[in-house]
Structures are given as structure tokens and as C-alpha cells.
Amino acid sequence: MALWLVRAGSNGEREDLALEQGLAVIGWDELPSLEPYQTRDEILELLQQVYEDQKLNTLRNWAGQLYAFRGRIQKGDLVALPLKQQAAVAFGEMVGDYEHRPDLPAGAAHARNVRWIRTDVPRTAIGTDLLYSLGAFLTVARIQRNNAEERIKAIIAGASEAAQKEPPVGDADDVEEVDDALKDLERYARDLISKRISQRFKKHKFERLIDELLQAQGYVTERTTAGADGGVDIVAGRGPMGFDEPRIAVQVKSGEGPEDIKAVRELQGVLRHFNAQRGLFVSWGGYRSSVTNAKRNLFFEVRLWSADDVIDAVLEQYDRLPDDIRAELPLKRIWTLVPDDDAN
Fold first, then answer.
1. What is the pLDDT of residues 94-139, one digit of tens each?
2. Neighbouring C-beta atoms of residue 260, cutoff 10 Å
3. Is 0.90 surpassed by the pTM of this model?
4. Ranges of H-type helices in the chain
5. Is the residue at 103 inside a domain?
6. How many CB atoms are located within 10 Å of the residue 183 CB?
7. Is residue 335 part of a domain?
8. Which of 43, 170, 225, 287 could cross-link with 291 by S-S, CB 3.0 to 4.6 Å?
9. Domain span holding position 245
């Protein structure tokens, strides 16, 4: 059994399609069916005909990915889909052969059936070395260093990261290894920040972090008493004394698991009790599909923060945070060159 990275668009455009229809999908819509093309060289020749303006190295890269998707990935192999809409990774089992699907939306012309096993594994539950591999700038790639397949199987089965000791980095013998590819260093850096927050800011300390972020944004806040919060952890308002609009009620969940629509509806139901006009629901573990499906209907009443939204707020307000929080979460701003994106 092998473990394969198969993305669903550089910005997650095809995540919902993949998860809802049980598919792994990739782009290159200009290409015809790959079924007649048996080898990587044949696919490369096809690419040279269709993408005449592309560099040869880029086409070779694409040929390797398409060849892997067409036939190297075997039924029974594991598939990893890093999600862009929440700080989580979906894992499934490849159960279908390659199909050309021009009937699907743009960016999904080539597809295979997948049985998704877990679609909400928090990134914080995955070792940093595996997250580094999952951050490759590739659409399709194999991940096999550091006993990756067995460790992911254990995570899918519910084992914690602490139960899996990250082995030393080994050697790769496959030129298509994700470890040889350019990495999304920004995503990797955010994963490291996420892990530090998970380790240092649990429960009430996480509530305080959210409270300080709101204060840094100009709100006057008050934290409710533990055990008697009525479903609200923080109340906040604008103005010198916090009386001005918008007045918001905040529910904070620091657990690793995703929250469902019931918890969000409960916050909606207590807004009037706190004289709040809006709600902010913060879930470090992300949200189940029942919440994301209702997100548009919630837009004017409740806003949703996931781990990535919290990290965005930390990065934006970092200089305004108290010294003790910055000591627990020491960050340094760096600049790096953005590589050419060879993913499709």
C-alpha cells in the first residue's frame, strides 16, 4: 500500500466536488483521455503537442504526475487531500480506475473514485515531517519517507501524534518523491505555529488568546465566568466603554475535533440574551460539513473562525499582543521567493 498526495485545486476549488462525489480529481482540462497513453514518455509527447509554449522541464514534471494518476496509483492505495477551507486533511482509499470526465466542472477532467475514510483529520494531529511532505507544490505525488503510510494508517485509526514517534529522515529512491519537490513553506510555517498554539494555549488560555486578539482589533471585551457562560465565553463591543456597535458574543472551542451545526445554532440562540447583534464562533478543530453548508445563511449573524483564521489574526495583530503571549508564541517575520507553481 502506498500513500499519495492528490490535490483538488491550488486554492481548494474542487474540494467539495471531490468529497461529496467520492472522487480524486485533477485538471489539465485541455488534454484528452489518458487511457490510450500507456507510458510516461507517451504522455510527455501528448503534453508537448498540447502545451507548445511550456518549458520542457515543466512538461516532464506534469508527465510524471499524470502518469502516476493514470496508473501508478493502485486500487487500495491511500490518498491524502490537504484541505484549503479548513486546517485539516482528508484521507481515503483509491477504489476506481482512471476515467476521463469532461462532464465534471472545470479543473476536474481526469478523475478516479475514492472511498473517503476520514475527511476531518486536524493538521495538528499529523507529524511535522509529514506536513512538510504534504506541502509540496505538486498536484500528484507519492509520500513514503519516514514510514509515512503506516503512520497515516495509525492516524486514520485514531492514534494520537504522541503515540507516533517521528523517525529520522530517511533516503528517497524515487524521482517522483514529494520530498524532492518544492514545498509550500508558508503552509509549513503556519503548521508549526498551529502546533505551538495547540501545545501552549489550551482551554482557558486559548480563550484568553482570542480575547486578546479581539482587544488588539479595537474591541472592549469581558470574559464570562467558567461554568456559567450560557454558551458564550466572551462578549465584546466597540467604543471607549464597549457600548458601541457591533456588539458580539463569542463562543470558543479549543478541541481538536470539528464542531457541528448544532453548536453554532446554540450560539445563534443566545445572542439576544447577551444583547449581542452578532456572534463569533471560534473552533480550533474546524467544522463539519453541516456547518460549511450553512455558512452563507449564517453570514450576517454569525462568523466562523477556524485555526487558519486564528493564525491570520495572530499574524496581523502580533505586535499588539501582550508580552507574555508573544513569549509563549515567539514569531519572526521573513521574506522568501515565491517559486513558479507547476501544479495544475
1. 999 999 999 999 999 999 999 999 988 888 888 888 888 888 888 9
2. 14
3. no
4. 15-21, 40-50, 56-67, 128-134, 148-156, 185-200, 204-216, 261-270, 289-293, 295-298, 307-317, 323-328
5. yes
6. 18
7. no
8. 287
9. 202-328
